[in-house]
């Protein structure tokens, strides 16, 4: 464990999503696989709290109070989750394309669904993760989650390094054509589709759209003064504002004016390295 964990903590106040949501950088070597560990405590006074989860290209392992641990796959549309106020949640979020190495199954088998962890890793691992909910507080649950995931690294398969490189290419070229990616990787379009689907859950073109959508959220998070919709579309890598509007509606069910207001849906990849470059069209 990293003795200086708290100095690496990146806190995000997710507003109406989860008032107690926080993200933490995992220690090495887990950081090569996970974007973050995260915790949340649902606030509010009503009988149920509702939040919208939007596509992010990631797979999460999630523990909700004493419920069975779940693996939440990559989604291509938004969905609502409901929890009672006071519910505590802890999760681990894999980097796009890297979950299958640890899970031991193609990401496509988890597309648009959440499955019990026991169905993926078996009863012993399920029991190991289920005990995490019994830890005294969020910090101890987070430490237990990290320890359990570190144990699973011993069973990890090799990553598809070509797909990992392709993901970085898409991050550097949000407006690039997938045909260019296929040529850059030196593989056929059919093989590109197959390998992305196995690693990410869907093809490279869909991933490009999801990542561009998350880039839009990332840029919106960082702005002290909201940009115009036209400027936001350019900065995120959309062809134009109407292109952005269609994809925002597709992935969130809301227009950009609603999605990009303060304290709305936040970027799920803030702690990744996918948005450190500008919208560069070059390799």
Describe the structure.
The chain is an alpha+beta fold. It folds into two domains: 5-155, no CATH class; 161-259, Orthogonal Bundle (Arc Repressor Mutant, subunit A). The chain contains eleven helices and eight strands. The chain has helices at residues 99-103, 117-121, 123-130, 138-152, 161-172, 178-185, 189-199, 204-222, 229-236, 241-252, 256-259, and strands spanning 22-24, 34-41, 49-53, 60-64, 70-72, 79-83, 88-94, 114-116. The strands form two sheets. It has a six-stranded antiparallel sheet. A two-stranded antiparallel ribbon has the order 3-6. α8 crosses α9 (229-236). The chain is globular, with a radius of gyration of 18 Å. The two termini are 36 Å apart.
Number of helices: 11
Strand order of the largest sheet: 1-2-7-4-5-8
Q: Segments where pLDDT lies below 50 for 5+ residues?
A: 1-18, 278-283
| Structural shape | globular
Report on the biggest sheet: 6 strands, antiparallel
Strand portion: 5-15%
In total, the number of domains comes to 2
Structural class: alpha+beta
């Amino acid at each position: 464990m990293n003795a200086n964990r708290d100095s690496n903590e990146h806190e995000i106040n997710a507003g109406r999503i989860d008032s107690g949501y926080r993200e933490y950088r995992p220690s090495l070597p887990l950081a090569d696989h996970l974007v973050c560990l995260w915790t949340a405590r649902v606030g509010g006074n009503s009988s149920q709290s509702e939040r919208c989860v939007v596509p992010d290209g990631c797979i999460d392992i999630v523990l909700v109070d004493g419920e069975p641990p779940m693996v939440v796959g990559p989604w291509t549309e938004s969905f609502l989750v409901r929890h009672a106020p006071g519910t505590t949640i802890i999760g681990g979020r894999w980097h796009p394309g890297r979950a299958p190495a640890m899970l031991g199954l193609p990401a496509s088998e988890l597309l648009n669904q959440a499955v019990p962890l026991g169905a993926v890793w078996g009863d012993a691992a399920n029991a190991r993760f289920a005990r995490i909910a019994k830890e005294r507080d969020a910090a101890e649950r987070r430490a237990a989650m990290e320890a359990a995931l570190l144990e699973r690294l011993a069973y990890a398969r090799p990553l598809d390094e070509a797909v990992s490189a392709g993901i970085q290419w898409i991050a550097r070229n949000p407006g690039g054509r997938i045909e260019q990616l296929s040529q850059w990787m030196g593989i056929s379009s059919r093989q590109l589709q197959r390998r992305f689907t196995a690693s990410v859950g869907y093809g490279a073109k869909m991933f490009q759209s999801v990542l561009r959508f998350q880039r839009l959220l990332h840029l919106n998070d960082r702005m002290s003064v909201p940009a115009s919709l036209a400027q936001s579309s350019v900065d995120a890598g959309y062809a134009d504002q109407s292109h952005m509007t269609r994809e925002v509606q597709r992935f969130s069910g809301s227009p950009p004016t609603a999605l990009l207001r303060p304290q709305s849906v936040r970027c799920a990849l803030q702690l990744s390295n996918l948005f450190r470059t500008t919208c560069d069209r070059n390799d």
